[in-house]
Amino acid sequence: MTTLVFNHLLLWSALVLVVDLLVWQLAPVQHPIAKVGMRLGLFLLYSWMIIGGGVSPLLAPPWPDDTLLQMCATALAIFWWLYLARVLTELLGVLLTHRIGHSGRLLQDVIGALVFLIAIVAAAGYVMQLPVKGLLATSGAMAIIVGLALQSTLSDVFSGIVLNTTKPYQVDDSISIDGVEGKVLDINWRATYLLTIDGSTAVVPNSVAAKAKLINLSRPSNLHGVSISLQLPNHVRPRRVLDALERSLRGTSLLLSAPAPKALVKASGETVTEYVASGFIADLAKRGEVRNQLFDLAHRHLEAAGISRLAEGTAPVQGTTRTRELLDEVKIFQGLSADAKDQLAAAMVAKEFAAGQRILDVGEVAEVLMVIGTGVITADVADGDGWLEVGRMGPGEIMGEQSILGDTPSEARFTALTSSLVYRIDKTLTQHCVEQSSAVGKALNKLQAFRQQTSHALLLHKPVTIRKGGFLSWLQKR
């Protein structure tokens, strides 16, 4: 049996090539290192078989009188070099992927092409006994001709190598290349593929990406800038605008406290002044949501400060007051008639609160319904020994609806985050409006249910604090 095997080693070696192909395509092993290990083992087995059968990859086959055997042996020796190149390419691919991730695929392809080129030249020189010097000279001349013809393509290839080596961006990063913004889908030997905001695919050649102004919006991973820009007439005092914009920035809890949000004058022209309000968020996916929220807050705070009308140059309608205009902005009073709103506006009493002053405490039954005129107010609910912020409120929002509906105490405490102006409406008058208009009662109930649901959801999804214990805790106390 052993003699039979050794007498047919070359035939068995050809069978190893078929087995390698089938194993690589059909093997259930998904781990790349395991698959490369199997291919390396089969290559060593193949090498042992052809050498044992009398074929050396470094020499021409020794059977010039037997044409068929000579051709088969030559083919097996050439396949050895190609097999070696494939194994080396796979090993380099595993190493590059392990060190630099998915972006190493382009570098793997380029190195693999060079390895196969070297293997082909080696097979021609050692196995086929061709004049390699002449072949290299001819291939060099051909390479120059092909290089000139494919200059732009080669530029993309080498630019891709630079991009994959320096890694200014990776797959899944959100980037902007010369104003083209999108998420990186793939980086291959020719181009970078971006999924743009409108859902289309942008193909940017690597040579263009290497030279262009590039902004990586995903780095750092937990700090992303967001800003809005507004233009207002020059006759509006900048300090008033900046104060309103700063209150707008304080009106959302999605902005990080450090670095601190800021509002500033960007440019001043002949007729208008441009203002920018900016801050930072932790989640890039919420960038659009925060920008929309900032625009809405800026509109509300500019309106509350009287800047919007001043910018438009319009005078208030005769007989209207700020309190009457404010009621038109409050959603729960939209179902009231104009006369009912006039009565409420006449009965509203303004009260100012300084930053940090408590407006309504938890467990307190409010005697009035409060409407925010200006400023930012934060709502907190009890969470064990501490407090959890559930939201921030601005102009046009109300507090104390629970006491209006059922004389129940407040489940949250409300504190002025900035200096604020709050209008108070007597409870009896508000309850009378609820009796007159069922829409007001439904709106109040809906608002109360929404706020309760939001606070309960935040408490349920609060991250669990892991307490340290055991030996490490003992060490920290020493």
What would you note in describing this structure?
The protein is 51% helix and 20% strand. The N and C termini lie far apart (74 Å). A five-stranded antiparallel beta sheet has the order 4-3-2-1-5. Mean pLDDT is 80; it is low at 1-7 and 463-478. The chain has 478 residues and is an alpha+beta fold. Helix 4 runs antiparallel to helix 5 (104-127). It folds into four domains: 2-149, no CATH class; 160-216, SH3 type barrels, CATH 2.30.30.60; 224-312, Alpha-Beta Plaits (2-Layer Sandwich); 322-460, Jelly Rolls, CATH 2.60.120. The chain is elongated and about 115 Å long. The chain has helices at residues 2-7, 9-26, 32-52, 67-100, 104-127, 132-149, 151-166, 206-211, 238-250, 287-304, 307-312, 322-329, 338-347, 401-406, 427-436, 438-460, 470-477, and strands at 174-177, 180-187, 191-196, 201-205, 214-216, 224-233, 262-268, 272-281, 349-353, 358-360, 368-374, 377-383, 386-393, 398-399, 413-416, 420-426.
Structural class: alpha+beta
The geometry reads as: elongated
Low-confidence stretches: 1-7, 463-478
Distance between the termini: 74 Å
Mean pLDDT: 80
Give the total of domains.
Answer: 4
SS field, number of helical segments: 17
The number of E-state strands comes to 16
